[in-house]
Amino acid sequence: MIFFLIALFSMIHEASASKIIINDESYYESHSIILNDEINNQIKNAKDDDIIEFKGSTYNNLNISINKKIKIISSNQTKIIGSNLGSAFNIQNTKDVSISGFIIQNYETGITITNSSNINLTNNIINLVKNTGIDVYDSNNINISNTTIDKNNNGISIKNSNNTLIKNIKISKSNGNGIELINSKNSFITNSKIEFSGLAQEISMTSSRDNMSGVYSKNSMNVKISNSNLTYNVNGIGISNSSNVSFTNNTILHNTYFGVLFEGGYSDNVLIHNNSIQYSNVGIKFNNIISNLTVVKNIIINNIERTDIGLYDGGAGIQFGSELRYFLDNTIKHNIVTYNNQRTFDGQRMNDPYQYVKEIDSYDIVIGSNLIKPDDWVCGILINPPYLKILRVGPATYMAYIIDGDTGKVASNMPTGIITFYVGKKIFKTYMINGSAFVVFNAMDLIGEVRAEFYGLSAVLNWNTIVTNMLPVSPPDNYKDWENINNDQSGTGSEPGTGNGNGNGNGNGNGDGSGNGKGTGSGNGKGSGTGNGNYGNNPNGAGSSPTFAAAGSIPYKQSFSKMESSANDYDDESSNSPSTSPSAKNNNKAFKSSESANSGGSSGGSSGVGDSKTSIVSELLLEETKKELTTNDIALAHTIIFIFVILILYGFKRKREVF
After folding, report:
1. Of 414, 437, 439, which is closest to residue 426 (Cα–Cα)?
2. pLDDT above 90: percentage of residues in the chain
3. 428 lies in the same domain as 360
4. Whole-number Cα distances in Å, 388 to 336, 384, 424, 432, 534
5. Do 237 and 252 touch, CB atoms closer than 8 A?
6. % helix / strand / coil in the chain, to the nearest 5?
7. Where's the Right handed beta helix domain (predicted)?
8. What is the DSSP secondary structure assignment for residue 265, as one 8-state letter?
9. What pLDDT was estimated at residue 149?
């Protein structure tokens, strides 16, 4: 009976909704003002859940008001052209409205949303707008997707609003901000491209940058920017007085002043993780009050002082500005910060009382082992940079790895990047993943020295150095997971491992050895090699692997409501972010089964989602044990073998005599 009533209600609901057709402009008898009135009257007389479909190709000077639950669509990319006045669509005091498929041009504002909720804007193009492409005030649950916004003053403005998702957006050539978030909560920007925002003019390096960023957040909470490109803006990202902010897996390139700029106010709980920040005047600049900041696994390189356009005091990877007042409980660790033409780390203004007479309150700061070149200029900051080593781990297999300058352990959460190996006249390139890389040479190429280079670091090893064993150890550090990275990841893959071993995850593999590590793993061995199993770290492995479960949690001050779960701790050493490389599948094929019995078996590769998020929980502590036999050892071995053979022959002779 209940199911019957539900079905009956659905049928009545569908029957009550209808489609209203808006004909081509030529269909209407009078000029555009009357046309505007007629269309608004049809919308006014529509019922909740009706569909308004525009059939015409072009309409002029429409200002459409929406205050009920309706869906407005165009199946042929209807163009609505204004005269720089009002909005093409004005949504007020309503909910459950959808607008899709329009081209909007020459308005004061393209689409205005005020005091409304559950609004869906998809597949629209908005350009040549005098003020803002999409303007949102005092609203909740706004979804803007698959939209292009071009040549406006501001691209998208979100003010005093909650729960906004901006996805698959392209914003270009905004005079002000590409996207601005003001006094808002729970704003998510993902898979978007924002370029040429702001005016690239010669302004003082210390003046305000309002309205000049690809994304600008002010007085906002729970802001997440991920998997997006922010290029050729005045600033890539600008932050002022905002908390619970994360930038992850973004490409931030060719921004005139700053890749990331922290301006005024107090910014708290910020994660900058796995971004590429390059070719700006300064990569990241910190000002005012910042606490609970984590900057880890970023590539911050090629930031150049722009004296050609009047910019000085630039060329820094990370800069601590003269306006920095409080810098509390922050971690900057395991980033690649190099090839910046002035100061890789610039703390001069923070530590020079003669040039800037002010006090800075700072404590619990961890500026850990960040990758810099030996000749990089670090000013006012004390760091212990990592260094590169090479091991021979098989007859023709070599491993390069990065050692943390602070801990002496493998820096397994360094960003993924290309490492180059040289032997003789041969050059080989592969990916450095989780602080290590493997290469298998052709035995005929082995001569002289094996050399490796990675972002200015280099290491050399004689090709015939004795093979080295490896022992896994537990991961060292925990980082705050603003993105819920610590979920179990699963996926499929085909890359086998090379032995039996235990990793912190599940994997399958075939090889010649056996070993023990942390966690679980399985494989089918063919030999009797002994030792400690290597970790299963192939991103294309089969199975599923939960990441290392860190104790405790650090929640946001306010949760991300329906759109995001609260934050957890995660062990950054044990979790891979999506690889920025085209493919990281084949990085660890090096351990061929013919070599595994010598150096210990390896567990099967753990899987990730597609080719990216894998779960690596082991670091390598490298035990360099050289097994060189002396002349006496060899002589003793020969003697024992000779005696053993004599005894066998004697026993055989006695057996024949008995019979």
Report:
1. 439
2. 39
3. no
4. 13, 13, 20, 11, 19
5. yes
6. 10, 45, 45
7. 133-209, 213-343
8. S
9. 98
Q: Are residues 265 and 312 both part of a single domain?
A: yes
Does 197 fall in a domain?
no
Plot region of 348 (φ>0 → left; ψ -120 to 50 → alpha; else → beta): alpha
Query: Which two three-digit tokens encode residue 433?
Result: 């993943």
Mean predicted lDDT score pLDDT of the chain: 71
What is the distance between the alpha carbons of residues 351 and 382, in angstroms, rounded to a whole number?
12
Q: Same domain for 128 and 224?
A: no
In this structure, the answer to whether residues 8 and 50 fall within a common structural domain is yes
Nearest to 142 by CA among 170, 127, 124, 122: 122
**Total domains present in the chain:** 3
Residue with tokens 């990089």: 376
Pairing of strands 449-454, 457-462: antiparallel
Give the integer Cα–Cα distance in Å for 421 and 428: 5
pLDDT of residue 104: 98
Asked, for residue 410, whether it belongs to a domain, the answer is: yes
180 falls within a domain? no
Q: Is a pLDDT exceeding 70 seen at residue 497?
A: no
Are 149 and 111 within 8 A, CB to CB?
Answer: no
Give me the domain span that covers residue 209: 203-385
Verify that 234 and 245 share a domain, yes or no: yes
Q: In terms of Cα–Cα distance, which of 470, 492, 477, 468 is closest to 617? A: 477
What's the pLDDT tens digit per position in 141-171? 999 999 999 999 999 999 999 999 999 999 9
Pick from 283, 296, 257, 265: nearest CA to 339: 283
Select from 335, 332, 271 the least CA-distant residue to 298: 335
Shared-domain flag, residues 480 and 554: yes
- Contact in structure between 533 and 600 (CB atoms under 8 Å): yes
- In degrees, rounded to 5, the angle at the alpha carbon of residue 476 between the alpha carbons of residues 467 and 300 is 90
Residue 212 pLDDT class (50, 70, 90 cuts): confident
CA distances from 148 to 80, 85, 133, 178 (A): 15, 21, 10, 11
In a 3-state reduction of DSSP, which class is residue 350? helix
Using the predicted structure, report yes or no on whether residue 203 has a pLDDT greater than 70. Answer: no
Altogether, the residues listed in the chain come to a count of: 659
| Of the residues 355, 385, 415, the one at which a domain ends | 385
Write out pLDDT tens, residues 27-80.
876 655 678 888 899 888 999 999 999 999 999 999 999 999 999 999 899 999
| Range in 297-306, 439-448, 464-473 with the lowest mean pLDDT | 464-473
Query: CA nearest 572: which of 555, 588, 551, 548?
Result: 548
Q: State CA 523 to chain mean position distance.
A: 32
Q: Are strands 258-262 and 282-296 parallel, antiparallel or unpaired?
A: parallel
Same domain, 356 and 307: yes
DSSP states of 559-595: -BGGGBPPPEEE-GGG-PPPPSSS--TTTTTT--HHH
Domain boundary among 385, 413, 434: 385
Q: With H, G, I as helix, E, B as strand and everything else as coil, classify residue 427.
A: strand
And the tokens for 192? 């978007």
Same domain for 131 and 215, yes or no, is no
